[in-house]
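Next comes this protein:
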Amino acid sequence: METFLGIDYPTLWYLVVGLLFSGYAILEGFDYGAGAWHLFFRKDESRRIAINAIGPIWDANQVWLIIGGGALFAGFPVMYATMLSAMYIPFMLFLMMLVLRSSAIKFRSAEKMLWWRKTWDIIYSVSNISIAFLLGVVLGNVIQGFEIGANYSYRGGIFLSFLSPYALMTGCTTLSIFMTQGGIFLLLKTEGRLHARLTFLLKKGMIFFITSFSITSLYTLIFIPGVTDKFKENPLFFVLPVLSFLAVANVPRLVSKKKYFQALVFSSLTMAFLLMLVAFQLYPTLLISTIDPKYSITIYNAASSQKSLGIMLTIVLIGAPLLAFYFLFLYKTFNGKVQLDESSY
């Protein structure tokens, strides 16, 4: 098996896919979180400011989803096919909500009628909440495992089988961390009465996050088999969950001191550390089979050919710096408080 810097190609591609979805969760996460708060703002102007806070960047952030999905399909086609079979309904709902969310951003301010704007406000907020929740549901199912049988085919049900108690808890936790992330981002982009309103709302949001995170973490430790096995094998790896809990604890501390940029950094680190915990706990497995471990999908039995992975890794080495430069330029260009004008949403 071919390697690069002593790491085999499937492992490298596992890291690439993980990095792409982590970037998506962090950057698009505060977009979804900002939208989830939308109906909590009472005035039309406040809602316009909140939409325009993400206006220049929301569609650019979706690049991470497109590239991540493409990387997953290209690198691990077996896993891609099986997971979409198992999660068909959540993914279809997810795509539908993405369309509705984009439509709401574009159409909300196209007309001045009150009923028109209120309708799109509801669609916008509900779609953001649904997307965040569905992403958590998918993650919860990945951690829990699927009914995968011979030939890596999904043997479980389609309707509502994905809504296990653990998946629902993971969905709520994902929504709560996105809302925390989104609230902090909006505090960076707003001022005046809306800023004061967000300060109040974010306190409630952080209580929601800490509560749901604590319950889900406790449930994971007690009821998800094998979740601590790798940490017991090498106690040094306990540094990762410790860093995760420290990052979680640091967010409310920084918010209380009005250090919003630092709070945004630590809420982003929280998401990154939690996703790293999932990736570390699963590796080298991609999808766990609850029928028989021999049917589990791993990075080795799901990977494309060595030549394909080698070519794609070369493309990553070329494209990654360009992508990083683009996002640095984008966020630097649209830095600062939101100011509404005639071209605003």
Q: What stands out?
A: The CA atoms of residues 12 and 313 lie 8 Å apart. The beta strands are 3-4, 7-8, 285-287, 297-298. The chain is about 70% helix and 5% strand. The longest strand covers residues 285-287.
